[in-house]
Amino acid sequence: MKLQQYCAGILLGGLLASIGLPSWAQNMRGRLNQALCVEDWNSAIATVDSMMQAYPNNRTQLQQYRDRLQQLQASPNGLSAAQRAEYCSQAQQTPTPANDNFKARIEQYYQQMDEMSYDEAVALIGRSGQVRDRYSAYGWKEENGATLIAEFPGGEVGSLITMAGMDCSGGSATDTSISIQCRSLPLPAKFERIEAGMNEQAVLQQLGEPTGQSEVIEYEWQFQEGNTTCTLEAYVYNGQVSRPWYHCDD
Q1: In this structure, are 50 and 150 located in the same domain?
Q2: Do 37 and 159 fall within a single domain?
Q3: Mean pLDDT, to the nearest integer, of 209-215?
């Protein structure tokens, strides 16, 4: 048996058969065979990475298999036609769970990944997302609570959120109760001057040192089954997933 066939058929097949998989990991072997069928090395390596996260006790074996995949990726020859045919055959034979409805699975990813870490989302989906954009976000907060949060896709203000400060000094007190009255304060003039499209460096110069800063990465995953294609996207702030969304086209 060829080394590649041994790795997929014995190492991964035996491993997946001997470990109780969570529901989101049932199709790992199928994804791996599908990736090898078309020599999609990045997807194959990402699947093995997900398995290493899910099964740390088998990390040594999986790391050896990952190293072999990287060698094949760097090789000008790759797999032979017979080896690709074997993987394609295994991909077709991999059983699909009865409840694995395609759109329902994407919906499940969408529901579960919000507030996950990016690494957890990769383990859930089984592969890394494609980076669509990467930029900075900053926040400024005044002592009275007035806040401005701005994101800078393309180096310019895109999303802009402002929140007014509050003055809660008003109110009254009796022997039995305390009444507190708060009123919104006008936004600081420097916040009012910030508009969509302004240059990132110009905003930093006007507002000074931000109270907080995040790196924002927008990721995309695409899935296809039959004539249906689904796209799942999410923003990741300092390693945490936020604002995922998806759409499917039949």
Answers
A1: no
A2: no
A3: 93
